[in-house]
Amino acid sequence: MLKFSYKNALNFFREEEIKLLEDQINIGHKNLEEKKGPGAEFTGWTDLPVNYDKEEFSRIQKAAEYVKENADVFICIGIGGSYLGAQAAIDALSNHFSLGLDKETRKAPQVIFCGNQISGRYLEELLEYVKDKEIALNVISKSGTTTEPAIAFRVFRNYMEERYGKEEAKNRIFVTTDKQKGALKELSNQEGYESFIVPDEIGGRYSVLTAVGLLPIAAAGINIEELMQGAAKGMETFSVENIEENPAYQYAAVRNALYRKGYGTEILVNYEPSLRNLSEWWKQLFGESEGKDQKGIFPASVNNTTDLHSMGQFIQDGKRDLFETVIWIDSANSSLEIPEDEANLDGLNYLAGKNMHEVNEKAMLGTVLSHVDGGVPNLKVSVDELNAFTLGELIYFFERACAISGYLNAVNPFDQPGVEGYKKNMFALLGKPGFEAERAELEAKL
Ligand SMILES: O=P(O)(O)OC[C@H]1O[C@](O)(CO)[C@@H](O)[C@@H]1O
């Protein structure tokens, strides 16, 4: 069961301030339930965990089986919401070293993401890496025209057609895109690629539980039925109107109470390397949803205890506008104990026989207390253990909290007008037809 606690933030605001946000939360809740607030056209994710296309879901499972049987590497091309959720889930639930394990042990192909930057070196090295491995590919883009994935897909489509021939390449390429329009849809109709849908009413950063995330996640050997069941449990728990019974609404309210007091940066903190990319997914979710109209909480992250030895100084003692949200997994996920050592030169014998989890937990507790003393409000989201079910719950928790939090700060949590700025300039500088006037203007500034 997911739990949310803000007891370590209570020195920084009065409980009553949460109460005073209740009316606004109720309006946000109604907006989501009735799908009628700002950005209502992108609220398809609210009931997705129970209201999804079951026929497509089984096609996803079938495609994942095909990929498992026929590929050593599954190349997933996408950027932003078109890869972050899948990457987060796969990392959270797979062996840390699965890249180095053979396929028999892994029972699934390696999933490698690309098309999420414009590095030629990365693509070239990936082409080299897969040259003696069987590959399959999933290109994921709602618009079908995002530059980064479109370039990567061009490169890999050419490569696969050359290597496998057009017909076999067709069997190995899966497309996830809009159901009827866009460049990718057109291409996939023309070439006969099996295609999956990014629903119109779900934006990229809310799409992990659609085919966008589900195909890569299933191909990595993760049980997507359990993931959806966990999300459905999340939907049941976190769609309750009453804030006292709804941890997601409490989280949204506390963040906003802190923000209004000048805490402008939230750091998502984990104590497990497997959660590093959950933070990356969370950053897009909250950053794109809330950072607009010259306001919003800046979402950051640290991976502890690693970053206590790099960012710890700043968090403890630097500019005081930070608050932290710790994601904690209650149960030990390994039985590894610290060994006894006769010489005890490192002085660690007082820990001998202790499970690593116990030490990690004390590190977490000690850090929270110390940061609170240093003026950093601390929130905590915890789950009993980490598996596909609880991950589904966590995903829904953050999605729901994010939407309500955006409404509380009077922004549309479902658009992202600011992303166009860099695209326009890049197109102009690259000489894309239609951007001639902007090009001259920008070049004069360089
Ligand atoms: O799936 P697409 O259309 O390629 O978009 C990818 C990402 O780009 C954005 O639209 C921002 O440019 C994100 O919102 C989205 O997740």
TrEMBL record:
Compartments, as annotated in UniProt: Cytoplasm
Signal sequence residues: none
Catalytic activity: alpha-D-glucose 6-phosphate = beta-D-fructose 6-phosphate
UniProt keyword Isomerase present: yes
GO terms of molecular function: carbohydrate derivative binding; glucose-6-phosphate isomerase activity; monosaccharide binding
Pathway as given in its UniProt record: Carbohydrate biosynthesis; gluconeogenesis; Carbohydrate degradation; glycolysis; D-glyceraldehyde 3-phosphate and glycerone phosphate from D-glucose: step 2/4
Domain of life: Bacteria
Major location category of this protein: cytoplasm
Positions annotated as active site in the UniProt record: E288, K423
GO cellular component: cytosol
Top EC class for this record: isomerase
Pfam family, one: PGI
Keywords: Cytoplasm, Gluconeogenesis, Glycolysis, Isomerase
Record-listed E.C. numbers: 5.3.1.9
Biological processes annotated in GO: gluconeogenesis; glucose 6-phosphate metabolic process; glycolytic process
Described purpose of this protein according to its UniProt entry: Catalyzes the reversible isomerization of glucose-6-phosphate to fructose-6-phosphate.
HAMAP family reported in the protein's UniProt record: G6P_isomerase (MF_00473)
UniProt record similarity statement: Belongs to the GPI family.
Xref: PANTHER family: GLUCOSE-6-PHOSPHATE ISOMERASE (PTHR11469)
UniProt name for this protein: Glucose-6-phosphate isomerase
Organism name: Fastidiosipila sanguinis
Species lineage: Bacteria, Bacillati, Bacillota, Clostridia, Eubacteriales
